[in-house]
Design a protein that fits this description.
Helices cover 42% and strands 13% of the residues. The chain is of the alpha/beta class. The longest helix is centred in the N-terminal third of the chain and has 21 residues, at 46-66. Its cofactor is Zn(2+).
Length: 312
């Protein structure tokens, strides 16, 4: 259960820490094998759950040190039908996993009640496709039906919020929002950007935000899996749409998605450049409240942008 004053919505209005690049951190720093880049199988046994506890506790300590809220986001980016099937998970198994992920973080978050101003548990939705590429247009109705079972599982488990990360098209974002509303969940949508500041399908970020908002829109938007320099390029298009962006989970590397996909070593980027980029983004987007990281980042990166020492 949430310890927020306004369940599910506080991260959009109050400073809030979230985590970094879960999968890249576990693969390159903890030496964990994650087939299909999926972290949710770690919930299946105590060893995996302990790895996840250690990971999330680092970011919780950043929130404690910064004196801000904590957004705990489930390791379920790949826990949807297409990716789950590659790992031998059927619909019933995925539902159990998605419910278990919320319960796991609710329990962990409870240990920080009173140590941070608020704890919010978000069920994470990932794209049906690759996340780095846009494979043609996405029908919003089809996307809503596809993502609904995962969102229902989050709602059944008592999640405060659903957040869809690394979306590459406005159509899929509209579908996720529709499905979350039908499931009774507050929802946030996060697009990923290419080095030119556009979505992978070539859409201007401004146009994507306005298209999703025209269909009712999420509670707020975030951006993830792009370096701060790439995000800054998206802001060249002026307009009120920019105030809808409330969160960032940026990559450590300035490389393109194609370059990152082909890389065999982790690019942890330059901490100074990463931090300076966030300072520039905060100046351009004074409404930002949720800050964490994405590929290549770890607790050091997130602590740096919050101006505190890393806990480990």
């Amino acid at each position: 259960m949430s310890t927020t004053a306004t369940p599910g919505l506080r991260p959009a209005t109050h400073p809030t820490v979230t985590d970094g690049g879960l999968e890249t951190d576990l693969i390159f720093h903890a030496g964990v094998d994650l087939p299909e880049f999926a972290a949710f199988p770690l919930l299946d046994d105590e060893r995996g759950r302990e790895l996840l506890r250690f990971y999330y506790r680092g970011y919780a300590e950043v929130a404690v040190r910064a004196g801000v809220g904590l957004l705990l986001e489930t390791p379920t980016w790949r826990a949807n039908p297409d990716w789950g099937a590659r790992l031998g998970r059927d619909a019933a198994g995925l539902a159990r996993t998605n419910r278990a992920a919320v319960a796991f973080l609710s329990d962990l978050g409870g240990s920080y009640a009173g140590r941070v101003p608020a704890v919010t548990v978000s069920g994470v939705v990932g794209p049906r496709g690759d996340g780095y590429r846009a494979d043609g247009g996405v029908d919003a109705g089809e996307a809503a039906a596809y993502h609904r079972p995962q969102l229902d599982a989050f709602a059944e488990a008592g999640a405060d919020l659903a957040t869809a990360y690394t979306l590459t098209t406005a159509g899929e974002a509209v579908g996720v929002v529709r499905a979350a509303r039908a499931a009774g969940l507050p929802v946030a949508v996060s697009f990923t950007l290419e080095t030119d500041g556009r979505l992978p399908d070539g859409t201007l970020l401004a146009d994507a935000v306005e298209q999703v908002d025209a269909d009712g829109g999420p509670d707020f938007f975030l951006l993830n899996c792009a370096h701060p320099r790439h995000v800054l390029r998206a802001l060249d298009e002026p307009g009120g749409w920019q105030s809808r962006i409330r969160g960032l989970r940026c990559n450590a590397s300035t490389a393109s998605h194609a370059e990152l996909d082909a890389a065999e070593q982790l690019d942890e980027g330059d901490l100074d450049v990463f931090a300076d980029g966030h300072s520039a983004l905060r100046a351009r987007l004074p409404w930002l409240t949720v800050l964490g990281g994405c590929c290549g980042t770890d607790v050091r990166h997130v602590a740096r942008i919050w101006g505190v020492d890393p806990p480990r």
